[in-house]
Amino acid sequence: MNDYDVPAGIDVLHVFCGPDGRHGNALGVVRDGREYPDDGSRQALARKLGFSETVFVDDPERGTVDIRTPTLRLPFAGHPLVGTAWLLDLEVLELPVGDVTARQDGEFTWITARPEWAPPRTLKRYASVAEVEALTGPPPGEGWLYVWAWEDEAAGRVRARAFPRRDDGIDEDEATGAAAMLLSAELGRALNIRQGRGSQILTAPAPDGTMEVGGRVLLVVTS
Q: Is 127 exposed, middle or buried (0-12, 13-18, 19+ CB in 10 A)?
């Protein structure tokens, strides 16, 4: 076992790192999904690892992946796809909702997807950055919540935090590409989001209704 306490054969990445290379959302990637061949074994591993998401790669050539939280399977998620695209140098990832394309641009890895593929989120605007940062935990209520405030509206800079509120041990999600997509779609503009402790997520809407989401990826543990 290593510092991240993961079994052999699993890579650990930090996705959507800040400009200083710190923070980002931890992601487990199982390069050979055949090692966990059924739903039960995959869910058990995702629960054991305790990351907000774990990816099982079922076909590295076609980019077929299976995304799991500690309690359920997701049809789409942002930071797992950005991280896996970077790790395996993929241009296409196959998901139940459709194909997601990916590209590298300097230090940033981008994926292109449709906002409607993202699971539903409640997006709640706060009046100030200070109010967002003052939260000591998930606000009362049920369902996935993304709180945000403008840091600089003219420049498209946003301060955000994410609270899954699904009783799976993840009180706060450090960096959430799917929620960033939904916020960018709602506002109809590109965003530069600072989420969690200091992660950075970039978004860019396209004329055809798709959305690019990008960020930095760091390999923390290699299998």
A: exposed
Q: Contact at 8 Å (CB) between 216 and 108? A: yes
Strands (E), the chain: 10-17, 25-30, 53-59, 64-68, 73-74, 92-95, 98-105, 108-113, 122-125, 145-152, 157-163, 191-195, 199-205, 211-221
pLDDT of residue 3: 63
Residues forming a β-bridge with 43: none
pTM of the model: 0.95
pLDDT of 4: 81
DSSP H or E stretch at residue 134: helix 129-134
Average of per-residue pLDDT across 200-214: 97
Say yes or no to pLDDT of 104 above 50. yes
